[in-house]
Structures are given as C-alpha cells and as structure tokens.
Amino acid sequence: MQNKSLNAKATITKNGAVLLGNYVACDSSDNSKPLRVVTHAHADHMMGLRQSLRTCEKVLMTPATKDLIDVLRGPLFLMGGFVETLDYGKTMHYKDESITFFKADHILGACQVLVEDAQGTRIVFTGDFRLDKTPVLNADILVMEATYGSPHCRRSFDVNVKDLLVSLVRKGLKKGTVYVFGYHGKLQEVMQILHKADIRVPFIVPERVFHVSKICEKHGMRLGRLTLSREKEAKELLEHNMPCIAFYHMNTKNKVGLGGFRIYVSGWEFNMACREIEENEYIIALSDHSDFKGLMEYVRRSKPKLVITDNFRVGYANVLAREIRRKFGIPATALPRK
Ligand SMILES: [Zn+2]
CA-CA distance, 135 to 155, in Å (whole number)? Predict the structure, then answer.
C-alpha cells in the first residue's frame, strides 16, 4: 500500500514536466502547479518557460542559471514573470512543503531538487548530473535522468580524458587553428581545462559563447583570455590558420572551420576516450552526464523506495528502470509511458 501512496507524489507528464509533491513542476510547464523550477539552462529543461512565467506564482532557479538564461534568451525574457533565485542548500517553504536545491555537477548553475511534503516524504529530482562531484541525496522517491541508462553506456577508459584533450589540442596547435565544438557549458569546461594546462594561445569565441563564458567567470570559473570572433585580431588569426583555439556551438559545426583541425566534445562515446573520425577531425569523450555505472551508483546510495526514470528526454529510461528493479529490487518506472 505504501508504494501506492508514494506513486501519487511524483510523476513525469507527457510534456516532460517533472512533478514533485503538490506544488512543484520542474523543467517543463504544467498548469496544475503554482511553482516552476528550472534545474539548469539546457534547452530540454527550459521547455514551456514562457508559459510558466505567465501562469506560475513563482519560477525558481539558482542565481547562475538565471544569469545564463538572461544571456541565452535576453535580459527581458525572465521579466515576463516572478523569478526567485535559490542558492544551493537554502530551503524555500511553500504552504506545507519545502523545496531545497543541491548542486548537480553538470553545467554551471545546475541543481537537484528536494521536495519534502507534509508527511515528511523526501522527493528528489536529480536533473542532469555527473556523479563525481554531485552529492547523493537520500530519497523516498527518486526521479532521475536516464541519458546513459543502458548497460552499454559504460565508460571504462584507462586514460585521463582531460590529459588526452590537452595533448590533442597541443598537437593541433602545431598545425594552426584548433576548432572545438560543444554545447553551452561544455565549451567553458574545455576552456577551463586548457587554461589550467597553461595553454596560452588566444581563445576565439562568437558573441553568445563569449557571454556565456563571462557568466561562468562571474561564478568562479577561470577560462583565460577570450577574443570575440568578429574582432580584427581574431579574423586575422583564423584567416591565416594561426595557432589559436576557436570555440563554437555544436550547431555550427557544418558552417565553421571546415577543413581545419576540429575537435568535437561529446558524451556519446564509450569505447574510446578519443576517436579520429576523419583526418584532423576527432571526437573527445568528455561528458557532463553520469554513465550507466554512475546512475546505478546514485540509486544504490540514495536508497529510494520508488524510482521514476525520465522517459521524456533522450536516453534509456525503460532499460534503466528495468536494471534498477532487477539489481536492487526497488520498484522503478519509466515515465511518461511511450
Ligand atoms: Zn543538461
């Protein structure tokens, strides 16, 4: 019977809204809930945000996520509603429930969400996370991402991916400009790795990557000196294939730096930490999500009574739910059902 009552306390809707307790909808809009949470500034977690700003009493996010959305959507966007920022570890009370954010190691500002209801049930949504630096929360109900939820998605590289990235970039710089393609957040992680490794060539970035990077710096990341790609200095470096590193969003990979030395940063690599796909074209397996082992380890340490895996976003929610049932004997369901 206990599971039945737990079952009613969290779900994922067909629009991808993660509903926790009586009042909270995370990462997509839902008309039945007064509070909307944005766990982080990736597009698949900001769905229906305009709608939520219009209809929700409050839209909650961390201060860094708010800064990122101001850059990605423009400073006026969030003014369309009542946004309240909540720091990690701070609790907000709403009627008979409380909401607390905890760090998720994913992109700047990413959070996990804990809702505690009137009966003391702990309902946790991990959002997207990489296990290494993510605190594991004890949960009665655990709602979790399932991006790499299949046993095939195991990274067992015996090399340090960051070192490999640094040496690949050094190799590329001997030939001239190195182009790095990745998503927001990941590009800045690469900058941080290269800066830390003392690679001191100019980092060239288009406008939006520049602004996202400045927010990352404001919140404590060290990225090095950035030059806007529209500036004369940058244009000359790129035009003459001089040693510098150009960082571009993955969406522009078919338009920019064609024929140059190119590196794609992707999580979807499991067999090799670095793979040459063409001459001077490489994929580096730098992920901001846990692999299968990391997801299972989170469940083991969280000790939930019920698990819901996110079957709305890209991933292996059904497989992960099955593996959790099989390995831990915990009821687990992939939602929404497809
Ligand atoms: Zn994400």
Answer: 21
